[in-house]
Amino acid sequence: MQKFFIEEFDGVLITDFWAAYDSVEAADRQKCLPHLLRELEKVDLRNDSADSRAFAKKLRRLLHDGMRLRKRPGLAPGKFQSRVDRRNARLAKLATEDPVDADARRLTKRLRRYGEDIFTFLNYSYVPHDNNYASYCTSCA
Questions:
Q1: Distance between terminal CA atoms of the chain?
Q2: Is residue 4 part of a domain?
Q3: Which residues are CB-contacts of 39 (< 8 A; sequence separation ≥ 6)?
Q4: Per residue of the chain (141 residues), what is the pLDDT tens digit?
Q5: Is residue 141 part of a domain?
Q6: 53: CB partners within 8 A, 6+ apart
Q7: Closest CA to 12 of 123, 135, 115, 86
Q8: By C-alpha distance, which of 2, 32, 3 is closest to 17?
Q9: 98 in a structural domain
Q10: Which residues are registered as beta bridge partners of 9?
Q11: Whole-structure pTM value
């Protein structure tokens, strides 16, 4: 990564959860929510424990709530920020859970590590919630 990022990246770095990206200095970060949602789907296919299902349901709902909030037109800035703060508080609470299930524990650990990078897209109108830039490319033919 250092080969490609010689200086600090002066923007929002949007990535998946590959740890190598952690070495890149950036002004801010956004983790790809579809990557996290796909991880939940993979876990659902192989793990049907009640603990895992309950954790996945809460996390999935929270992520979708964040994405829906971004699409809400016309919210007053104060009201919008209040809703962003509530989502961040829900995420922080979820990250403090101590699940019995190994998959839920692993994902909880990921939330603890990257929680500040989950809803960054709500703070910048130009930042998407995913790292699929091609779907946002307006000049591509």
A1: 30
A2: no
A3: 107
A4: 555 555 567 889 999 999 988 988 899 999 999 999 999 999 999 999 999 999 999 999 999 999 999 998 789 999 999 999 999 999 999 999 999 999 999 999 999 999 999 999 999 999 999 988 744 444 333
A5: no
A6: 44
A7: 123
A8: 32
A9: yes
A10: 26
A11: 0.87
- Look at residue 54 and tell me if it is in a domain: yes
3-state secondary structure the chain: CCCCCCCCEEEEEEECCCHHHHHCCEEEEEECHHHHHHHHHHHHHHCCCHHHHHHHHHHHHHHHHHHHHHCCCCCCHHHHHHHHHHHHHHHHHHHCCCCCCHHHHHHHHHHHHHHHHCCHHHCCCCCCCCCCHHHHCCCCC
Number of domains in the chain: 1
Q: Which of 106, 15, 47 is nearest to 5 (CA)?
A: 15
Rounded to the nearest 10 degrees, the angle between the axes of helix 50-70 and helix 102-114 is 30
For 31, list phi and psi in degrees, rounded to 5: -90, 145
Range of the domain at 23: 9-128
How many Å apart are CA 102 and CA 108, to the nearest integer? 10
